[in-house]
Amino acid sequence: MGVTEWFGANAQWISPVTSIGTMMIWIFYAQLLYSSYARQTRARILINRAVGDEGMDSPCLVCNMSSESVYVYFVMVRVETTDGDFFVPATDCGHASAERDHADLKTRTHQGPLESGSCMQLCSFKETLDRAAWLASAPIKDGRPTTPEVDLTAMEYHVVCIYGSDKRPFGAIRRFEIKRDDSDQYSLVATTTDTQKRSSLRYQKQISQWLQKHG
Hints:
Elements: H1 3-9, H2 11-41, E1 45-49, E2 59-64, E3 70-81, E4 84-89, H3 97-102, H4 105-109, E5 112-114, E6 119-124, H5 125-136, E7 140-141, E8 144-145, E9 152-163, E10 170-180, E11 186-190, E12 196-198, H6 201-214
Antiparallel strand pairs: 1-2, 2-6, 3-4, 3-5, 3-9, 7-8, 9-10, 10-11, 10-12
């Protein structure tokens, strides 16, 4: 049997198989296009410690790695100690009035639009820690506990943002463990290699509660 006769004899099942194969190829390419589009339109925020040997005095950097601008809504920080945890806003680091007069609004409040590929410098980890401790009436001053029984264990940043035309805010989260060496100096170690994004309904409710409580 020649090739022509073979195709003619099996045409009833060759045609459906060819159609299914073509459809699978189109589905594969559609998935590739969607994955590429999703990566380009997905918000990506990186929270990191500035490079250097400043330890707790290093500033915290919020970098927008998305393809579009994001609006930084507010910043929350969780401080973990051996005596318990507290969760407070860290958007305003409490600059003195003289500093407020010479600083622009974004520098003072760490709020506002953040262009693609740009970074926002927050207060240093030490300043943020002191500000958070003051708001929570915690026994911490100058980045150190004021009582021997209490020790610092971690700081967790929650940067709440709105991306592009999306109406729902999301949280960029990164946790840093606080280590103390033999010379009684503190250092920061990120517990994850990347910043986590959180946008679940439960987290949306948490954001609403923060807004109601802290304005």
